[in-house]
Amino acid sequence: MLDGVQKLVIVGxxxxxxxxxxxxxxxxxxxxxxxxxxxxxVGSEAVKRGCVDEAVLEAxxxxxxxxLVVVATPLGAFEAVFGAITGTDAVVTDVGSTKGSVVRQAxxxxxxxxxxxGAHPMAGSEKxxxxxxxxxxxxxxxxxxxxxxxACAEAVALVxxxxxxxxxxxxxxxxxxxxxxxxxxxxxxxxxxxxxxxxVIEVGxxxxxxTGLRDTTRLASSNPPMRADIVHENRVALAEQLRGYGxxxxxxxxxxxxxxxxxxxSELESVKARRDAWLEQRERES
Length: 286
Prior knowledge:
Elements: E1 7-11, H1 15-26, E2 32-36, H2 40-48, E3 54-56, H3 59-63, E4 68-71, H4 78-84, E5 91-94, H5 100-109, E6 116-121, E7 142-147, H6 153-165, E8 169-172, H7 175-203, H8 211-216, H9 224-233, H10 235-257, H11 261-285
Parallel strand pairs: 1-2, 1-4, 2-3, 4-5, 5-6, 7-8
Antiparallel strand pairs: 6-7
Helix pairs in contact: 4-5, 7-10
Protein name: T-protein
Keywords: Oxidoreductase
Organism: Mucisphaera calidilacus
């Protein structure tokens, strides 16, 4: 497992970084794991829970002699992290929810950008911090890899091994394709949940809200600074998808107002069948 990796540094010991550490330990990784935390209390919690072996506050010294570095901070901190670890010879990967800006920053700031391989593990929760981490968070989920042109084959192979060994299913695409698709399947659902909560705030109904409201708005409880970073970095693709989603809502509003029962039923049945087929496919592949 991760042959040759004696020291692995996880920069960011929040939910994803801490869960990665737990998953690696659970699957037998025997190397030394160092976590870089923004605050001493967060790092101490990650050590206490066994997510990393030790925690420090500065990325540069920790990564100087690392074999593998995983950047698991919010997107807004990536530029500073890449600048701090510019001198490392380690293979570097990340967990960022957008890839275009991350790849550009890596190319501009890392001393050896050919050893950077972008990654987006498609797993998470509305919860945050090492106290919410668990070893199974990543298992069975997709992980998108976006290796840049000219990336070192050894680095790509090591990053593939990292995510495979914690049970993830690898998908490759370029950074722009990734950001376009994430705008639809990840970033838009969050803002749709935000919009629904805003509607309830305006209209009311909290006292009778139940599982339907809870389940469809789960993402509205996500970490706001983290989500604001994601929206900012993917704003062009996301704005396009928001406009398209708005048009779909207007079309549904016209369908409802027109009281065309047969057309509405057909729409609901078609969407249900497509979603059910997607879930069944995921179940078969798990």
